[in-house]
């Protein structure tokens, strides 16, 4: 869920040029020799439940497969969390399973948000999928996950062997992927680059050697530097649009943005047992109009849930930005649960804008995680420790707040010098008072901060709290140009 954004853009293509380019993508290379094998790998990542373009993906991949070549479809993780049509289904994620099976996905490496639906649900998902799950840095501890393998060997025509391993990101603080710790309880995670380097043995005896990763673009580049034996890295997690795919230390590095807006394509030419040519591009799906009718019908069926269209509140204007949305979310926690202070981490704010008419679907898209509201008794210094840990995760403001205001003062290296707390009235926060503080169960489990009180769950999710707050007639006119958390000097936040 974290990672710095790096946008790599190519020239804008008109639809006609796009179609022509796709048709000639392989022909533009050197003419094949007898015995050459051309391999096409389509790939996507960080879909986050955005299924509407899958009918276009099915048409593109289907056309290529009907051509009789060696064609594969890879998924680099994070299919869930972002669309209640997927996340609120029973069982969670079921529409995504049906669609990925229908698309003919060949291989998936789980991302951190795969675990948001819960480990048991994910194991059921994997057991019923028609494609393998791979990750070399996840191992069974107390939880059995028999469908998960470190790598697979795929075969292309002519006996060409394609070795592919997977790896997933972990957070430096707790050594777990960016999901609620309870969702991965019982699994063990090792450092991904070290686990990847151990896969070097797969180079021997295989003509193609690939990594399918959920690490983020910057870490993929590090992997290319440390494991030049790879032919290509197909990645996800940082939502980076890499177009065309880049070559780092001789390794092709590809990633296809996010939210099903692009489909990646990697072409490999194998000659005399080794890859002699490789390149990658992105297909902009908004420029593509052909759709697979069967997949389109499935998408229409899944989207037809009238409950999500119910308008639960009308705002006088669109509520935009993490400050405004975070303030709305924390106000709902504080006011409905009679708290003094409430915090919301920015990674848990999954929209940048709520339209004037706010629907049930909007709320579950904004807050799809199902985290519980947790109340903890905290002193002013405890609150500083929470803010301090949150800030250090990215050297940026992370926590939006209700009930107080705070300023993080840093030096030129963004090292914290002081944290100033004040009440809503601007007066300094009393140092000797104990406050009732509300946070999500994710923050309670994943952030390292001081507190004597172990806390208690309030039997309400953060999304349910917000729904009740909106339905109760909350004053939404205050959420314009609102800011309660400050950084001095100002910083810039690029979280995912």
> Strand order within the widest sheet?
7-8-10-11-13-12
> What's the alpha carbon Rg, rounded to whole Å?
24 Å
CATH class of the largest domain: Alpha Beta
Number of domains: 2
Structural class: alpha/beta
The CATH topology annotation of the largest domain reads as Purple Acid Phosphatase, chain A, domain 2
Q: Give the overall shape.
A: globular
- Sheet with the most strands? 6 strands, mixed
Looking at the overall shape, the CATH architecture of the largest domain is 4-Layer Sandwich
**CATH homologous superfamily of the largest domain, by name?**
Metallo-dependent phosphatases
Question: What share of residues are in beta strands?
Answer: 25-35%
Task: Quote the average pLDDT.
Answer: 91
- pLDDT below 50 for ≥5 consecutive residues: which ranges? 1-28
Summarize the structure in short.
25% of the residues lie in helices and 28% in strands. The protein is an alpha/beta fold and 496 residues long.
